[in-house]
Amino acid sequence: MYGKGILKGLSVTWKRFWDTYTEDISWMLSGKKRYYTEEGIKHRASKHTKGIFTVQYPEEQLIQPEEFRYVPFLVYDEGAEGKKEVRCTSCGICAKVCPPQCIWIVRSNDPNTGRPIPEPTEFYIDADVCMNCGFCAEYCPFDAIIMDHDFDIASYTRNVYGMDKLLKPASYYKNIRPENYERNDAERKAKEAARAAKAAAKPAAPAS
Questions:
Q1: What gap in Å lies between CA 132 and CA 135, rounded to an integer?
Q2: What is the DSSP track for 82-149?
Q3: What is the pLDDT of residues 67-87, one digit of tens each?
Q4: Are residues 36 and 59 in contact, defined by beta-carbon separation less than 8 angstroms?
Q5: Bridge-partner residues for 164, per DSSP?
């Protein structure tokens, strides 16, 4: 009775072993690469794969779905002459909603007037404390903080990220989250158009 179960398990292993080689030969004859290519990784992660379905990490990595989330990053728009126009206004909403309180911000003030400037002087995220919940990105009213796909952060030291590591261009955001980017971009343009229409409809002040 017990021998039958062992043989059944071995037959599954044996089938996968041979399927791996037959699939490898099939891909080779078709001129395609089954390993170390995006196409090959996608196929091995699909329900249609046969034989081996694992990846050779870290040389290979699974293709992350768009909603995959890891430590957040700050978005900046690329202005004229490559100037980084940081979207963050240091409003502090992300820090308030962060459950493990791993975000802290140093706000900027105008040295002449002392009034606040809508851009952070410093912005830190403790990546070792971050629980990747995504609340900061969810609540940000400016789409300035987005959850990243980069999870290779293992190190022997504490991972406290400053603006030098957190800032990434909007083109990177568009690349890893194309549907989210398009939706947020459309919403932002609609708000700008509504503000412009409201300003245009406002009656002009009477001349003195």
A1: 8
A2: G-EEE------HHHHH-TT--EEEEEEE-TTT--EEEEEEEEEEETTT-----HHHHH-TTS-EEE--
A3: 999 999 999 998 888 889 999
A4: yes
A5: none
